[in-house]
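Q: Predict the bound structure with adenosine-5'-triphosphate.
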Amino acid sequence: MFTPSKYKYTPKTPKRRITTLSSGSDVEKDPVKVYSRLIPHNNVDSNTCIEIMSTQELCISNESKGIRKNTFYKFKHIFPSHSTQKEVFDHIGYPVIEDLLNGKNGLLFAYGVTGSGKTYTLTGDKNNPGIIPRSINTIFNSIEGMQTNKYLIKTDKLNSFEVQSEDEANKEQMLENKMSMKISKKGKKADNLEFSLFHNDGTKISNLNTSRQYAVFISYIEIYNNNVYDLLDDCSTGKILQNKILREDLNHNMYVNGVVEIEVKSAQEAFDLLVTGQKKKKIAYTNLNSESSRSHSVFNLRIVQLENINNSNDGVTPVDQERNIVVSNLSLTDLAGSERSNRTQNTGARLKEASSINNSLMTLRTCLEILRENQLNKGSIKLVPYRDSRLTHLFKNYFEGVGSVQMIVCVNPAIDNLEENLHVMKFAEITQDIKILRTEPKSIQKSVRKVIVKKSPIKATQDFPVFKFDLNNVDNCGTAINNVLKALSDDNSKTKDLDTKIFNKSKELRKCLVDVFEENLHTSTEINNYKILLQRQKNKTRNLETKIMQLDAERKKILQTNKEFETIIQTIQNRVDEKQCKINQNILEKTNDKEKMALGTDKMKQELDKKLKQQRNILSHSLLIKEAVLNNVRKALETENFSDHEKLELMNTSPPSCLYTTPQIIITPPDEYVPRRRSRSVDEIREKGTVESFLETTYPSSRKRKSNLVLEDVSNKHRALTKKTEIGIVLINNSPNKTKNPNKVPSQVE
Ligand SMILES: Nc1ncnc2c1ncn2[C@@H]1O[C@H](COP(=O)(O)OP(=O)(O)OP(=O)(O)O)[C@@H](O)[C@H]1O
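A: Predicted complex:
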């Protein structure tokens, strides 16, 4: 959002003419007086966050994360929740009214969050009237017997007043009486009795200038959604209130153009206007206040002091006589309360109102912050953005020094309001630092206004005395000429007077024109400043737009890259999935293979066991046979005639080594059995014949005897046995010496 306080450009505040300030006193400054009033805390179930330390100091306790933080704030005076309306008026209202009746301007405004008691403090109700009704009573108590006749003072509709002749005033009074008689006959008399019932305690200001007469004027406006409405505008015929514009008068004071300003001659008349205006004020129900003000309202009291003069014998004020008047103004302002939408839960019109209220209060705060900064830091003079809101624009003069400024900070001490109270206190602190130029009352000279009736030129000539010349009588002629000369000299002096007046008037007019010119200059400077600001904002906006476009293009690029990366990631993911599938398949196949192998191994083992058993049987059988053969050989040897030496040699002959070596058994199924490789010795044995060749080698042929027959028999039996077996056995001699010892028995036997 466009925040005025964030302006980088700081044009100088246009110089304010100090014509309204009396010389010598305008260097004196007074700080804004800030008071605080606490609303009674009704909810006994919830705690309060504020403790009053003294009549000028309070403490706000803020507990966060278990740490208690106390912040102290000082005010001009603090009103505890049990303070009465009278106490508040005596402290704040009375001095303000005293100043007002002594010709000084003042602004008194109530500030605080919604429902904190601002309206109660300023207006109150018929049982507990607030500052406004008490002020009215005090004014009329004080000026009793010192009032001007009604209509003697009249507004000029340009924020100033003019003085009428008693005659004119009487005529207008009679006219009004007639009108009111007509109205009362029709039975339309106003019945605003609300404040008339309350007890007038007779408070009055005693140090008034008794050589003056007083007139009281009232206007009542409200600023709703940043529009200005006149609460005293006549809307009896169903007219809706019109938005008014703010204007600057010749003294650079802001005023509401065309505002209805009514002269009142009694407190009752003033109460009538107060109640009439209040009835038109925008009030609505919200979650935090059943009668919440949705606008800022300003009740204006203007006092005109008229210097007493010695009237002519007939009691009629001479026309064109200069009379001094002093005008003072008091704006009693009830600001709408700041509110947080999350607490009020406002929607629709209420929400719009709330945002407008908060905006204008924000502008007020910004203006005061900048004002304080300008005052504290003489080097930097920033433009105070009064024009950003109607509220600050209207009060511009007060902050720039046309009168005292006082603020009542209304506070609800309930713990729920802690955060908002801290904001309010911060604002109060800023406001207290601001110093306002002190001004003294200034009297303005006003000539008594006469209703000018245009005279015809003929009548004007008729005003000149008619002189008759009797030409026959020279003496008479001389007297007549003297009379003419006297009349001419009178006329001449009158013309001179008129010339002087014309000169003065034209001087005034010229002054006015210079003022208007200066005002225009001032306005055009402001306009130029705003134009520069606007241009800067436009440039800023353009730069931001370019940046946004660049960022958008970059964002698109990043999105495109993201898309590409996503596609790559997807492809990689697909490949990984495929690989994972293959790995899973392989694992499954391997598991199947392992299972098959385990089954095959088991089967093979069983077969081997079986065949080993068979082979063991066969071997044991063949061993038995061999043992039998050996026994037979031994017997045969015993029966044959061998020499002892031959017997010994035969006995010492080592048995076939195959009987002592560890046999290695290779089993192949009978059908498939194809001996592929044999050792050389086996082949040799095969070539030579089997058992026969073995015997031949062992027992040389020279020694062949009976026993050969036995051996043949054995070999035959053996062959028969071998035939019976379906399995081939190969006994392999694993002895390492088999090649080194050629004497040994062949290592392999089939
Ligand atoms: N000092 C007080 N003593 C008793 N009652 C009070 C006091 N101050 C306020 N109240 C009551 O509290 C209620 C809210 O007060 P009020 O309407 O004045 O608040 P507000 O600040 O003007 O609110 P908003 O900003 O919403 O208009 C009213 O009913 C009023 O009568």
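A: Residues 39-40, 112, 114-120, 289, 291-293, 336-337, 410 surround adenosine-5'-triphosphate (CB under 6 Å).
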